[in-house]
Write a structure and sequence with these properties.
Layout (H helix, E strand, L loop, with lengths): L5 H15 L8 H15 L4 H8 L5 H11 L11 H17 L7 E7 L5 H14 L5 E8 L2 H9 L1 E3 H4 L4 H7 E3 L7 E4 L1 H4 L2 E5 L12 E5 L9 H13 L1 E8 L14 E4 L2 E3 L1
Parallel strand pairs: 1-2, 1-7, 2-6, 7-8
Antiparallel strand pairs: 3-5, 4-5, 8-10, 9-10
Helix pairs in contact: 5-6
Length: 273
Amino acid sequence: MSELNDGDFEKISKLVYELCGINLHEGKKELVKARLGKRLREGDYKSFKHYFNYVTTNEGKDELITMIDSISTNLTSFFREESHFIRLRSIITAMLEKSGSRDFVPRFNVWSAGCSTGEEPYTIAITIKEAAKARQLDARIFATDISTRVLQVAQTGIYPEDRVKRIDNSILGKYFQMGTGRSKGYFRIKKDLKDMITFERFNLMNQFSTDFNFDVIFCRNVMIYFDKYTQSRLVDKYYNSLKKDGYFFVGHSESLTGLTHSFKYIEPSVYQK
């Protein structure tokens, strides 16, 4: 495999940072070498320099997206960091109680930012359904990621058995279809759950739409890849994209400590506008 010298690593790191805010410090050099080395072999590029020069041309735009796909890390699971979904359930219950008449159908908008292969937004959808019970609720989930590869998995909504084995059987039976025949060992998300979610490729470094007006935003285990400056800018944009009293969830290993922000601290990894 071609060697990744410091100069080429610096150029790739700078490009990735400018495009999507991911901070590829020196400790990530081997990861970049391994993941992009595979692209070099598949695309028959002579060197990392040759590859970099190609992705920065107009002709290399599609490969640039593939490069970002290769570098971005996507680790997720159903009901990951479960306390967040317990909190989400209580938020929905309180909102429905406050809304009064059962004839009134409240609207509830959630953003799953950095949704990876879809386990998070589908877990959000299940939690909403379980919290609302027989009550009518117009719930919409906007699920985004920068990786087209993981979004394809998310939109398909089909998972191997080992990805769903920790889900309670009553939930599994209610919201998943078990595969048979050639699909045995796989589980498909049911249509009514999928219909709640809009999947879209979105770069968090882009300007947020002025139409964004969410009740809850999940951005978990995403900001750890950004430096403090990028984190502060992003948190500010999230704040402006929430309704008054809306909630913001970050990963259990993350916090807003050390960042300038306007959020009110609720509990570890949970904040409110």
